[in-house]
């Protein structure tokens, strides 16, 4: 399941705000199979994928983690860094070798606090991503675990 309609930074931020944010980016390479984060962990960074694929998953008691979305080129990995208590709400794993831009969440939050217009743009972008991810997670979990026909009205 590949996300195709997730709001990208390129489409969501003005060129000036994108440029300012990218000054904080650090290029990283992450091996296949690496856990980027687990639910409940400290959300202190985020990534924008350059190449590769990341699966987002949710812990399901008594079962294997459910993959709720796969992310690829230009997509944001991680949104929990923006909202207190800054704890991951999902898990993420590199399913292929990954090249990405990595951002320090504290530095980005500080930049956003110092420039309210940038902060508003970043908040709007991440909020749109969050809404998309929650819809995807709900749909995927219903597909996986709801009884057949549970969504139909009879």
UniProtKB/TrEMBL annotation:
Domain of life assignment: Bacteria
UniProt cross-references to InterPro entries, sorted A to Z: cNMP-bd_dom (IPR000595), cNMP-bd_dom_sf (IPR018490), RmlC-like_jellyroll (IPR014710)
Family matches, as SMART domains: cNMP
SUPFAM superfamilies membership: cAMP-binding domain-like
Regions annotated as coiled coil: none
PROSITE patterns, sorted: CNMP_BINDING_3
Segment forming the signal sequence: none
Stated name of the protein: Crp/Fnr family transcriptional regulator
Organism name: Streptomyces vulcanius
